Amino acid sequence: MKPNERRNRGRALLVFSLLLFAPLVSGCGKPPQVPADAGQLIGSLRTAISAQKKDWLDANAKLVDEKHKQNKLTDEQYAEFESIIVLARDGNWSAAEKEVLRFAQAQQPGS
Question: Cα angle at 37 between 84 and 76, to 5 degrees?
Fold first, then answer.
């Protein structure tokens, strides 16, 4: 197995675990609210997914990682983005598009 494949599988497992147990901890199955600037990132990610552009997806993934490292995204917010990115990277563009739309629609103005 190539290092990138191993890393992507590890990320997928982490994201899956976080998404599996997050509703048990938070008591809610809705996607998390994100800050306004991260809301723009949801839009950008949605565009990359609807266009099925891997390079755009990678650019968004890099921004998500940077915002998480800068503590501008919580672990829960990061996991939500990552789960969508993993779906798209695995070629499941349709499911990724449904999830990013669900994520976008869950955002409330002023959050």
Answer: 45
Encode pLDDT of 54-88 as tens digits.
Answer: 999 999 999 999 999 999 999 999 999 999 999 99
Phi, then psi, of 75 in degrees rounded to 5: -60, -40
| Stretch (H or E) spanning 52 | none
**Short-list 76, 58, 78, CA closest to 68:** 78
Report the alpha-carbon distance of residue 59 to residue 65 in Å, rounded. 10
pTM: 0.72
Give the Cα separation of 78 and 3 in Å (integer). Answer: 22
**Average pLDDT, integer, range 95-109:** 93
